Hints:
Blueprint: E1 6-10, E2 21-24, E3 41-44, H1 47-55, E4 61-63, H2 68-78, E5 84-89, H3 94-102, E6 107-117, E7 129-132, H4 135-143, E8 153-156, H5 159-165, E9 172-175, H6 181-186
Parallel strand pairs: 2-3, 2-5, 3-4, 5-6, 7-8, 8-9
Antiparallel strand pairs: 1-6
Helix pairs in contact: 4-5
Amino acid sequence: MLAPCLTISALPERLPARAGAVIITSGQAVPALPRRFADLKLFCVGDATAARLRAAGFRNVESASGDAEDLYRLILARRVAGTHVMVVGRGHGMKLAQDLRAAGFAVVRRAVYAARPVRALPETGELDAALFYSAESARAFVRLRPEGMEGVVAGALSAAVAEPLRGLPWRAIRVAVTPTEMDLMAVLDE
């Protein structure tokens, strides 16, 4: 059952006409990317976002296969010339942009979507497990204070995603070995 904790809405943000590379911190930003970026180097945080970018017609995609720190290291290692356009959600990517600027990169950060917490979860019935892909969705879930989590296993994509979940009395919180959907699904078998 899908029960998103966030609603996503596009923001009317204009992206620069030119860029040396593009940085994507979430698959939610993919619909905002213009076709003129199709051949640019696109750096993204994870493999699911990389697959989504390729499916949308972007040809020069490289995934950090991890988290924001992995993405930072990947961009540092590749040293693409020119301005890096960071396409993010409102309030996201500020530390990564700051770190890249401190490392000598020209970074233009643009918010192209907003994520807002839902006010209520749908009726779920009895759950065995709940999976969380982002710290923001985990925080939104915890704020809703759902009842009956004592018997539920929470699966988190990373330690950063698991941290806000500690606000509820889960049966267990399990963290994926690597931040991939395959490893997140594997926590259900533990």
